Amino acid sequence: MTAPLRRSALFSRHQALGARMVPFAGWEMPVQYAGVTREHQTVRSAAGLFDVSHMGELMLHGAGAPAALDRIVTNDVGHLLPGSALYTVACNEQGTILDDLIVYRLEEQRFLVVCNAGNRDKMIAHFARETAGRCGFEDRSDAYALIALQGPAAQAVLGRTGAGRELVELARFGVATAVVAGIEVIVARTGYTGEDGFELFCAADAAGTLWDAALQAGAPLGVAAIGLGARDTLRLEARLLLYGNDIDETTDPFEAGIGWTVKLAKGDFIGRDALVRKKQAGPERKLVGFEMTGRGIARHDYPIVEGGRQVGRVTSGAPSLSLGKNIGLGYVPRALSRTGTGLGIEIRGKLIEAVVVPTPFYKRGGNAQQSS
Hints:
This protein is 21% helix and 34% strand. By secondary structure, it is of the alpha+beta class. The strands form 4 sheets. A 6-stranded mixed sheet has the order 10-11-12-9-3-13. The chain has a 6-stranded antiparallel beta barrel with strand order 14-17-16-15-18-19. Strands 5-6-7-4-8 form a 5-stranded antiparallel sheet, with helices on one face. Among the domains are: 11-55 and 143-237, Gyrase A, domain 2 (2-Layer Sandwich), CATH 3.30.1360.120; 56-137, Aminomethyltransferase beta-barrel domains (Alpha-Beta Plaits), CATH 3.30.70. α2 (36-45) packs across α8. It is built from 9 helices and 19 strands.
């Protein structure tokens, strides 16, 4: 029997705004309100408000928390200062990716870890097992709602909610606890759109009040609610990886282009030995960005072809609504990963031309493609 879809604390708000709701990672979530194109451009030009309460929130605390977390993730938590965050992955012993995560050091011995919605149960079990006897651990996923405010007007909107200057001017990847719109909120200068912005964690039963305050404060600046459809096109332009598409337990950080999250010098951690071997050997394949030069849109799982043979599959693909091009990501053999390499994407039995290009495709401050 299929389990019923879960609903966030903001479900009634989405309905009132006319959102089209769809199943996603076991949840009923808004895919769009006014349309993906319009919502995408709203985030790029003003700011958008996203309900991402389906994400998982894991708390670690106690004297053993830094060491326990450093054993679980590949990046260096020990050097993370209180009030700051980092992007990382958690690997298995084979050196492939269990999930990609954001780690927030709220206090010296207190950490918040955000995991992907589709991996919540897996990561809760993994963290519970690996922290047992080492530090305190709590799954706080159902207690929190998570609202993302993203776009060039995000600072102005947050300020209009009554947030203090210290929050509005948080450093990139900074995090602080404060009162916003009368609600205690963990505010982080993080996001998943390629734009500046904030992510706001609050008690689930206060989410409606915070959502309403942010929408009201942002209305004069053109802020609107944004669905998962535009979230996907925004993150793809910025080459922000999607677990289950671009990375999973068959991929490692080096071939995915996020080897910078692996700090081998920090000491032992889960998967380190395998990752040492993978780094020494070098990746056999690489995740590349490509642009369609022929007419067609690459979609997830379409075959990538070169020289008459399939060499990979598209992991993510969509029209770039900022650049007016069709773009995608996919793994190809290392020899085919250089910028300018021609590829073919098989679309409904036809081979459509594409070319490897630098990523991210879009970087704020300009619409030109940027080298990674």
